[in-house]
């Protein structure tokens, strides 16, 4: 663990510290904030977690998390099924609306099956995006999620979906091959 920056005084009784963790293999860097309360010396982790250029908003009640890009420098968005923060596991179940939109350096995306809510235009206008992989049992992709991703050439849709959303790959001018599963019963306009 490494302190990233000095403590920030929130008020007379609370101080927040940002902590950086680098995995032993050097492949993963994680950030999280800790609030220390002077009154009762309790420690409280804030409602977000940062890992691999992705920002996770944590829901402590349901132990779930939603994800978005944390920096426009992100090159790969390999979304994990879970994140662990301060000893608690959170299922990553949402991609925020506009979560990765306009990430010009993003080249690769992996969407796990735990995603139950996929924000519209989540990956739109990612000009360098060439590789999109979905967990096979992912059930839903939303409107315009990948529109204007000009570098995409091939996509295999997850076998569990039954609908191709409106504008899903709208104006993806390099897209030559889309593998559509046999269970699809509806294809939205401009898909």
Polypeptide structure, described:
This protein is mostly beta strands and 191 residues long. 0% of the residues lie in helices and 43% in strands. The chain has strands spanning 2-11, 14-22, 29-37, 43-45, 48-51, 54-59, 64-69, 76-78, 82-85, 88-95, 108-111, 117-118, 131-134, 154-156, 163-164, 177-179, 186-187. Strands 1, 2, 3, 4, 5, 6, 7, 9, 10 and 12 form a ten-stranded mixed sheet that branches. A three-stranded parallel sheet has the order 8-11-13, with no helix packed on it.
Low-confidence stretches: 1-10
Radius of gyration: 19 Å
Shape: globular
The helix content, as a percent range, equals under 10%
**Distance between the terminal alpha carbons, to the nearest Å?**
46 Å
Sketch the topology as an H/E string, one letter per element: EEEEEEEEEEEEEEEEE
Proportion of residues in extended strands: 35-45%
| Count of separate DSSP helical elements | 0
């Amino acid at each position: 663990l490494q302190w990233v920056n000095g403590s920030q005084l929130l008020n007379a009784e609370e101080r927040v510290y940002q902590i950086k963790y680098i995995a032993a293999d050097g492949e993963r860097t994680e950030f999280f904030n800790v609030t220390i309360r002077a009154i009762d010396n309790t420690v409280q982790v804030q409602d977000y977690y940062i890992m691999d250029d992705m920002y996770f908003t944590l829901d402590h009640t349901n132990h779930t998390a939603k994800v978005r890009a944390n920096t426009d420098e992100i090159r790969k968005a390999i979304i994990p099924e879970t994140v662990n923060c301060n000893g608690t596991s959170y299922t990553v179940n949402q991609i925020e609306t506009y979560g990765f939109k306009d990430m010009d350096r993003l080249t690769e995306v992996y969407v796990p099956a735990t995603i139950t809510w996929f924000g519209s235009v989540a990956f739109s206008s990612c000009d360098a995006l060439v590789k999109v992989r979905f967990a096979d049992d992912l059930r839903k992709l939303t409107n315009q999620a990948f529109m204007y991703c000009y570098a995409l050439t091939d996509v295999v849709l997850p076998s569990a979906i039954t609908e191709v959303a409106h504008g899903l790959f709208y104006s993806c001018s390099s897209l030559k091959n889309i593998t559509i599963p046999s269970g699809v019963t509806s294809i939205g306009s401009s898909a």
